[in-house]
Structure formats: C-alpha cells, structure tokens
C-alpha cells in the first residue's frame, strides 16, 4: 500500500492501523513495542484496554484474549471476544476495571482529547497505569507533520501539556521518555543506524525524540482525617462560650 493513499482529509477519520502498515509506520511500531517490552511485566498481567490500533497489540506482548480488549470506533470484520466497538468518549467498561490502558496515537486525532483522557482514567483501577504514545511536536517529526501523511486536523500535544492535564486528575507521572531521533523522511537504513546512538541522543535531547512515551499511575487518594478542634478556654473553664439561643429570649 502506498503511503499517499492514507486518509488526509479532515472530514474523514484517521485510521492509525492503516498508518502502522506503511514502511515508516512499521518502523515506529517496532520501536514502540521495544519500549513497552522493557516495562515491568506486572503492568500487563491483568486486564489491559487498548484504544485504537486494533489490528494488533501495541504492547507487543502475547496475552490471553480475556486480558486484552481492543477498542475501535469502526466496525470490525473479525469476530473476537476481545474486540469491542465503541466511542472513546463513552467506554463500555465499569469504573476501576482496567489494570492498564494504552492510548497509541489516539489523543492527537480527537476533537476533545481531554474527555477521552478523563474516560480512560475512569475505567483505570487504583494503582493502575495509563500508557500514552504520541508524536512529539517538539521534534523533527512534529516540524515535518506533512511528511508523516497525517490528516490536516491532527493536533500534536506535548508531554508538558499532557502532564498538565493529568495533574488535574491527580495522576502520578512515573515515566516520561522520547525516542526515535532520526528525521521522518530518512530511509529505514538511516533510522536503524541512528538507533545505535539512541542512548547518547536521549541524554543530549531528552525531550526531542520523534515519539514520546508517557506513563501515569492512578493514585489512591487517602480520606481526609477528621481532626478535633479543641477550644481550650471552654475546656479549662468547663463552660460553653455561647449560651443556648433560648437563654437570650427576654421573657415578659
């Protein structure tokens, strides 16, 4: 499939699955899976919900179908118990039901990404993790958005903006990382060559990789303790500071 056939019209919905099937998309998917494979396995041991990219698990892990739910806004031709058709704004999952929620290049193509972020947070269980993959606007990839064949309505969000949105949800940011420093118009050989310098480039330019990975943890908020406020004057005298309202009534 030629990359020029990708949807590039703001009136059409962008299919990240189609983009992943291009040569550049395959390279990005491979590198993203490498990033997720080194994460603690405990993050993927329970129920995992992935929004979009339903042709495969972006985590790259072989998981039982009952543990992985792939949510798509488009009807699926494949009959499978782990494929769910739904809008991202109203997910058909109860509160606190998902151990990990993955958003692979979802927020940059939605009209109101904050609503989707809030909905993903709703279904996340306490101490669960939200994993966000996105195109970094502060990178060569962000500057060359047209080269990526992304739709006109795509709006790339920085890690700083997502960090601000997540702060409103009382999230704990446990990982912020960018990778893939080769320009998007490079050939695959050049990208593979620069991967050998990835550690050095990450150290020099930690926030300027073409793709970013952001992981937030859903904290358990402690109940606010009820503190007794002592009135020491009343305590020492043994008398209340105010008389009952009835005591102030003048009787004739």
Provide structural commentary.
This protein is α/β, with parallel strands linked by helices and 252 residues long. It has one domain: Vaccinia Virus protein VP39 (Rossmann fold, 3-Layer(aba) Sandwich). It is 26% helix and 19% strand. The protein has eight helices and seven strands. It has a seven-stranded mixed β-sheet, sandwiched between helices. α3 (113-123) links the parallel β4 and β5 (124-135). The longest helix has 15 residues, at 23-37. It starts with 15 loop residues before the first helix and ends in a 15-residue tail after the last helix. The model is unreliable at 1-12 and 243-247 (pLDDT under 50).
Overall mean pLDDT: 79
Counting DSSP E segments of at least 2 residues, the number of strands comes to: 7
CATH class identity: Alpha Beta
* Biggest sheet statistics: 7 strands, mixed
Q: Poorly predicted ranges (pLDDT <50, ≥5 residues)?
A: 1-12, 243-247
- Portion of residues within helices: 25-40%
Q: Tell me, what's the shape?
A: globular
CATH superfamily: Vaccinia Virus protein VP39
Oligomer: single chain
Number of helices: 8
Give the H and E element order: HHEEEEHEHHEHHEH
Strand content: 15-25%
Major sheet strand order: 3-2-1-4-5-7-6
CATH fold assignment? Rossmann fold
How many structurally independent domains?
1
Distance between the termini: 99 Å
Kindly name the structural category: alpha/beta
Q: What is the name of the CATH architecture?
A: 3-Layer(aba) Sandwich
